[in-house]
Specification:
By secondary structure, the protein is of the alpha/beta class. Helices cover 40% and strands 18% of the residues. It has 2 domains: 150 residues, 3-Layer(aba) Sandwich (Rossmann fold); 148 residues, Isopropylmalate Dehydrogenase (3-Layer(aba) Sandwich).
Length: 303
C-alpha cells in the first residue's frame, strides 16, 4: 500500500509494461513540460497531438528537447480528441491527458471519450479523483469530485464512490473507507444531502456499492477526527480514518482541494476515472510537481 505520493514512482519501478500517454490538442507549455519530464524519467512513452508548429514553438520557447518525440499534426482541437481516443481503441495508447488546462481542454477530450459510437466510456459516470498527501494526516487520502460532476444525485454519487474505490484498491487499499460529507452529521429531511449520505451508507452495507465501507452523513470534523466523532456520540469505523472523502458537490470538493494545496501544502496527484483508460486532467492551479505526479498515478494502473 502506498504511504506517500513519492511511493507512486517506486511502484512504477516494478511495472509490468511500458505504457504510452497521448497528450491531446497540446497548447499549454505546462502540459508539455510535464509530459516531457515523465518521458525523460522513463515512466511513459508519449505521443503529442495538436498543431505541430505551435508545439515546436512552445518547445523552443521553453528550451525543451523534442528529439525522438512523436507528434501527430492536427490543427482542429476536436479532431485531436477523436484521434486520441482512436489510439486507445487501437491499443497504441494506454493513458490520455488534456493538452489545454482550461474548460475547453476538458471539453475537447471529454466529448470524444463519452461519444456513444466511438468513445471509450464504460457505460458509467466519469469522475475526478484527487489523491493527497498531508503532513497532518496519517495516510494518503482521496477527494472526489473536484472537477466533473457539478451537483451529483444519489445514483451519480454511488458511481463516483465506485470509481474512487476501484483506484484505491489498485493502490493497495483492499477495503477503502469512504466518508460522505455534509454540513452536519445527522439526517435531516430539509437537507437532501444528508439523506443521500445515509442511503449511500446503507447501500454499501447491502452490497450495492462494493468493496468498501461507507459512512455518512459526516461533517468534515467528525469525518477526519475520531475524537470529534466520539465527542458527538458518533461511533463507526470510518471516522478518523477515511481513505476517501466524497463531497456533496463540486464547490465543496474544490474548496477542500484548494485548502489542502494552499494551506496544508499538500502533495497531489489526480485523474479522471470511469473510462477504459485513466485520464490526466490538470489545471493552471496545479504545480509542475502535481502534473508529473498525476501522470505517474495514471501509469500506476499498469504497474
Amino acid at each position: 500500500m502506498l504511504r506517500t505520493i513519492a511511493d507512486i514512482g517506486k511502484k512504477l519501478e516494478k511495472r509490468k509494461q511500458k505504457v504510452t500517454l497521448v497528450a491531446t490538442a497540446v497548447q499549454d507549455e505546462n502540459v508539455l513540460k510535464a509530459v516531457l519530464e515523465a518521458c525523460d524519467r522513463d515512466v511513459v512513452d508519449i505521443l503529442l497531438i495538436g498543431n505541430e508548429q505551435k508545439i515546436r514553438h512552445m518547445a523552443e520557447k521553453s528550451e525543451a528537447d523534442l528529439s525522438g518525440i512523436s507528434i501527430i499534426n492536427e490543427e482542429d482541437d476536436y479532431k485531436s480528441g477523436i484521434d486520441s481516443v482512436k489510439l486507445v481503441h487501437d491499443n497504441r495508447a494506454h493513458m490520455l491527458m488534456n493538452g489545454q488546462e482550461n474548460y475547453h481542454g476538458y471539453a475537447v477530450l471529454g466529448r470524444a471519450v463519452i461519444d456513444r459510437e466511438h468513445g471509450i466510456g464504460r457505460g458509467q459516470r466519469i469522475s475526478h479523483f484527487a489523491l493527497c498527501e498531508l503532513e497532518s494526516y496519517h495516510k494518503l487520502i482521496g477527494i472526489t469530485d473536484c472537477v466533473m460532476n457539478v451537483n451529483p444525485g444519489l445514483k451519480t454519487k454511488a458511481a463516483i464512490i465506485s470509481n474512487a474505490v476501484f483506484f484505491m484498491r489498485v493502490l493497495g487499499v483492499e477495503n477503502p473507507k469512504v466518508a460522505v460529507l455534509a454540513a452536519v452529521e445527522v439526517v435531516n429531511e430539509s437537507m437532501p444531502v444528508t439523506m443521500e449520505a445515509a442511503m449511500l451508507s446503507k447501500m454499501a452495507q447491502r452490497g450495492q456499492i462494493k468493496n468498501c465501507m461507507v459512512e455518512g452523513p459526516l461533517a468534515f470534523d467528525n469525518a477526519i477526527s475520531k475524537e470529534h466523532a466520539l465527542h458527538k456520540g458518533i461511533i463507526n469505523e470510518v471516522s478518523g480514518d477515511p481513505d476517501i472523502l466524497l463531497a456533496p458537490d463540486i464547490e465543496t470538493a474544490g474548496m477542500i482541494y484548494q485548502s489542502f494545496v494552499f494551506f496544508s501544502k499538500a502533495k497531489v496527484a489526480s485523474l479522471a476515472l470511469g473510462a477504459t483508460v485513466p485520464i490526466v486532467l490538470t489545471s493552471k492551479l496545479d504545480s509542475h510537481e502535481t502534473r508529473v505526479n498525476s501522470i505517474l498515478l495514471a501509469a500506476s494502473l499498469y504497474a
